[in-house]
Fold these 2 entries.
Entry 1:
Amino acid sequence: MKAKTGFNRKMKIFISHMHGDHLMGLPGILQTMSLLERERKLDVYGPPEIRSFVEAIRETVQFALPFPVEIHEIENSGVLCEEEEYIVEAMQSNHVVASFAFALVEKLRPGRFYPEKAKALGIPEGPLW
């Protein structure tokens, strides 16, 4: 909310493991999105228990979500999702419970090179010119 990015944008949530300090914000964010009338699908990635957790909070707290939630249970390391500008990969990590580390890998974005500006700055010519 402070970032002013809006809650109706394309969004993915990644939960590394099923400990409260990594997980307990999820019910609040889901309810906030509901109150703010989110409409777009939300993707939630997490360990295999994530599905039953989300279902349990929806039943226990008894709030309806006006938007679809797609749960992705992570069981192995590998690519979780691929978008136009990035890929998200998961890798099993060493913890007391099933746990994953995530890497956001940006795809190459070739820029423009301006030889005139480089020369003006005194940058010597090289193989990437």
Entry 2:
Amino acid sequence: MHRNDFRTLQLFVAACELKSLSRAAQRLGIAPSAASRRIQLLEHDVKGALLERLPHGVVPTPAGTTFLRFARDILHLVDRADHMLSEHQSGVRGFVRVASSSSVLLARLAYDISRFASSHPDIQLDLEERDTETTLEMVRSKQVDIGLVVSGADTQPLVTFSFGGDRLVLAVPQTHRLALRERLRFSEFSDETFVTLGHGTAVRKVLVEQARLLGAPLLVRVQANTFEAMALLASQGLGVAVLPQPVLAPLKEAYGLKEIEIVEPWARRNFVLCVRSMPELDPPAQKLLRFLLDP
């Protein structure tokens, strides 16, 4: 691989993630012809095909899948080295990358991260809000050091720790027919139209599954990008919304919403903190992990 540089590794990883060499080239600002040539040289150096060319894109070959894992490791180490060098120049002594689902971030993590940052000004934190599936993939692929999600998703082969939890509640306008109720089973409102988040989010997935168990599809009228947008849309009568109680609490008065308890076991949720392995964590990441688990 002596003729290939880190830029080529970035191109290969991007092509695997985007399933397109042309889109990967566009992301990295490389001409398509130059990108194709880089991959050809890479495959020549490793003496085998790494990408399978399809009519509408590319996918890694079995050898490419193995190479992808090592390419990500190499890029991760280079990225960490760059950060550590820049940290020493700027006086910062650590850098930790964290990804979290919206539920965990709003219920607890934002408060904990703020306290940690105040007591550790020499450690720089990069916090990204992502859905559950994306968060777990970012931990597995070493894009972040620590991930926090709602339990129930497949966390293998990651190491997990309990991180508290929350409960889901139903939000309806004060004028809605269900606003007179204080507690409801899911079967009592499953035929309503819903405002939800996207497909990869924990709340959406549990609602779809519970509706399936009742023998009917979930009727989604509007898909929002944030919990606050969900609350606003629900207040306008576009559908009922199932939200984490800590999220709804500060919004319900402003938006004129009624909070109704959902009497179902799945409405009480546990949060999970995930890492690849303890030995892989740098000292700053280990310090944040210990703080989060015993704040």
